Amino acid sequence: MPWWLSLAALIVSAVGGWGVTRLCLWAGEHRAKEPMPRVVILEQKTVDVEDAILRGGLMIGVLERVAITGGLLAGYPEVIAVVVAIKGLGRFSELKKTPAAAERFIVGTMASLLTAFAVAMVALLIAGEPLRRSLH
Q1: How far apart are CA 57 and CA 76, in angstroms?
Q2: In-domain check, residue 99
């Protein structure tokens, strides 16, 4: 694969993925709300908006997409498992405390992974390279 195509794919994945991820997070937050049944609240816990938003997510997302796109272009799809494991373990304690943050984490991670995968596949198709490595 030409170096310029790899570089272009990494840039598109890093920068373009931000927009896709933001759009998915926005859509999740602004989905149509169904009327909720009335329940008696015995204990109410308030969570600040700041606590529901995980710090560093933008930079982590950019690095995640670059790593995944680069790994796929280099023929190492295993990098996906490594990135997901690092993200999950690194955020576990924060996600356990705040369900709203956990939902944003899952939506953002899935949007980011799918964008990185799509960009890598398009770059491989443009380069005329196989999408799968041979097991022989």
Answers
A1: 24
A2: yes
